Amino acid sequence: VDEVVYLTYDPKMSKFRIWAFASWGGPARTEAGDYKDDKLVTVSDPWEVMGMTMVSRSTLAKAEGDKMEFILEFKEGDNWKKDGGGLLTRTR
User: Fold this and answer.
1) Model pTM?
2) pLDDT tens by residue, 63-92
3) Which three-class secondary structure string do you get for the chain?
4) What residue ranges do the domains of the chain occupy?
5) How far apart are CA 38 and CA 41, in angstroms?
6) β-bridge partners, 21
7) CA terminus-to-terminus distance, the chain
8) Contact call for residues 10 and 16 (beta carbons, < 8 A)
């Protein structure tokens, strides 16, 4: 699945906002969050994937050069379970 992700700052909310559009279609996944311990942590609004309602958490942290470390987790009960991640490279 490919995604196009837009990251913005919402001064009214005092939060960073994410809109993610997946290649499989459907409405955008929306997230909001802030910096914690030099990492941008955002939590999604509930969204549906394969017939299940999910809540996800994305973490972005600066790596070396033009790279960012990305971690994706899904909420299971009161806990977060890591589902994926990797290094993202900035494009210009």
Assistant:
1) 0.85
2) 998 999 999 999 999 999 999 999 988 777
3) CCEEEEEEEECCCCEEEEEEEECCCCCCEEEEEEEECCEEEEEECCEEECCEEECEEEEEEECCCCEEEEEEEEEECCEEEEEEEEEEECCC
4) 3-89
5) 9
6) 4
7) 22
8) yes
Which residues have C-beta within 8 Å of that of residue 41, sequence separation ≥ 6?
33, 34, 35, 57, 58, 59
Render pLDDT for 14-51 as a digit per residue (tens, 0 to 9). Answer: 999 999 998 877 789 999 999 999 999 999 999 987 88
- What is the pLDDT at residue 76? 95
Tokens of 71: 């971690």
What the block records as the tokens of 91 is: 């494009």
Residues above pLDDT 90, as percent of the chain: 74
